[in-house]
Amino acid sequence: xxxxxxxxxxxxxxxxxxxxxxxxxxxxxxxxxxxxxxxxxxxxxxxxxxxxxxxxxxxxxxxxxxxxxxxxxxxxxxxxxxxxxxxxxxxxxxxxxxxxxxxxxxxxxxxxxxxxxxxxxxxxxxxxxxxxxxxxxxxxxxxxxxxxxxxxxxxxxxxxxxxxxxxxxxxxxxxxxxxxxxxxxxxxxxxxxxxxxxxxxxxxxxxxxxxxxxxxxxxxxxxxxxxxxxxxxxxxxxxxxxxxxxxxxxxxxxxxxxxxxxxxxxxxxxxxxxxxxxxxxxxxxxxxxxxxxxxxxxxxxxxxxxxxxxxxxxxxxxxxxxxxxxxxxxxxxxxxxxxxxxxxxxxxxxxxxxxx
Length: 356
Fold this sequence. Notes:
With about 350 residues, the protein is an alpha/beta fold.
């Protein structure tokens, strides 16, 4: 048994109705493509169904969402743009908290029915990411092992592992020359004598921005444009550490970036800020940029690993996690994801291959 909390919109009129999540996908597609036909194609529904759904909710909400013009395609009305912006803001604020609340509820339920113990559960503190969320979801569906997943920054997660607050810590660190610049912050909490590293995924991080690229962003140096509004990740997160290392390598001062001090806590929050026009550019992973119909400029590859105490390496729970990472179900969900490489998923790797 597992509980997952999701965001649901309801309209309360003469009757209470749940707003179909497809509506938000369609108006986001129209905003991106300027075409209802392209929006319905991307959503995987027919033109007739898509237009019918939009018309239904325009009538129920009593606001125009979309304007169709012969020869000009489709575009959002002020009401449609407001709805899309608010949906993005709500997603940004609530999604990470809902994930943590889901974990708390599931833990309490497992305690209540007396099946939550060290033999069938693992607590993971991990940096926010699609691969670790996919791992959690597969375990939830299979009901093989209760994975109590909490999203925190990479360093915060490693600290929790050091102090015994979790069984496993998920962290990411850049590949190549940048690893040497940041590794001390990680090795303060990890040692080859005390920890094993299981590889999860190799992924790319880069700049996310409006798909039309109005600022003509072509490199990290374009962040110095004074009119451009940047949104950053929080201190101690692996993404922030990586971004600061990139700035240092390129000789870019923090105060040269408008918005450097503006912090959010997940890749989703960064993308939502840009999609809602509250910011112009941020730093994050490609799949999240794509899910929000944003442009993406790849900049650097990084390793995402699970740090495991050596005494747990042969534990059956670790073997279950490893088997899922090696299994086709996990790999099929990530193999075609932009900016992700799952070649070494599930393998134990040497410290020297990660902390170069």
